[in-house]
Amino acid sequence: MRHLLNPLDFSVEETERLLELATDIEQNLPKYSHVCDGKKLATLFYEPSTRTRLSFESAMLSLGGSVLGFSSANSSSATKGESVSDTIRMISCYADITAMRHPKEGAALVASNAAKIPVINAGDGGHQHPTQTLTDLMTIRSLTGRLDNMTIGLCGDLKFGRTVHSLIEAMVRYPGIRFYLISPDELRIPGYIRQDVLEANNIEYKEVNNLDDAMPQLDILYMTRVQKERFFNEEDYIRLKDCYILDKKKMKLAKEDMFVLHPLPRVNEISTEVDDDPRAAYFRQAQYGVYVRMALIMTLLEVEKPC
Asked: What is the pLDDT of residues 274-306, one digit of tens each?
């Protein structure tokens, strides 16, 4: 039995096979419609989610399986004091695989140690979000035809953004990757990412405050929102929430073949006027997330690819 807790749980070769399967699903969706008949996915979401939870549910339903679970801690026995370990032991009796989101870092690891079914980490605090990373990898690969030799700009909340942390850890395994880390000083990338991931792998990176200066250099711009739920006080959030707003004027500074990604939801960090730009790929990114999660569910359940 295997779990996905961290994007590095899959080797580069395993990730490539997963992305190839996801691409085949995209191109031949009908032939996968019954490969998980009789299988059940439990979605255990202890904090709010729209895209990730519904993406998982759509993925399992598209494979012919069924879904059960809860969408907030308030609608679970956590309100009665039930531990994550006890919840996952109970869920193991009802489902074949589970996707869990939790506000506490390490909660998915705790669940995996008690589970009798595969556990997928759907986000644990500010730590990891491996299925979003797989989605990002598929998006970049599909749009550019490669996962190497490119310059990626990560903009916004780099301190609390688990999608950013996971993406950096995954991308440093490919040759020729360079990063522009664009944030206010208060939201800079955590020291452990800088030292243990970027510097430890001799990755070229620049930390800058100004988005305009970085734009002409980028192959991918990965925008993130400033996350209100990660702040301890309202004042700091209000002061920082509008640091970077991507609009048509800024897009004119970018390459013609640069693409804009965003894990969503956005607040106002990408102006809606950018949505019609052919380089705006964030809604395509959300669609790729369904195909990636279909491929992941099949892989962890060891379901054979249909002929």
From this structure: 999 999 999 999 999 999 999 999 999 999 999
* Closest among 67, 65, 56, 63 to 33, alpha carbons compared: 63
* Upstream peptide bond of 265 is cis (omega within 30 degrees of 0): yes
How far apart CA 95 and CA 40 sit, in angstroms, is: 5
Put simply, whether the predicted model's pTM sits higher than 0.85 gets the answer: yes
CA distances from 173 to 19, 119, 166 (A): 15, 24, 12
d(CA 180, CA 208): 7
Residues that are catalytic? 51-52, 80, 101, 129
User: How far is the C-alpha of 98 from the C-alpha of 118, rounded, in Å?
Assistant: 6
DSSP letter string, 138-157? HHHHHHHS-SSSEEEEEES-
Tens of pLDDT, residue by residue over 193-208, are 999 999 999 999 999 9
- The 10 Å CB-count burial string (b at 16+, else e) for 94-128 is ebbbbbbbbeeeebbbbbbebbebbbbbbbbbbbb
Which regions of the chain does DSSP assign to beta strands (E)?
40-45, 66-70, 97-102, 119-124, 150-155, 177-182, 204-208, 220-223, 259-261
H or E element, residue 26: helix 12-27
Beta bridge partners of 124: 102, 128
Across-strand partners of 101?
Answer: 45
Q: State pLDDT tens for residues 70-97.
A: 886 655 556 656 899 999 999 999 999 9
Q: Which residue has 């405050």 as its token pair?
A: 209
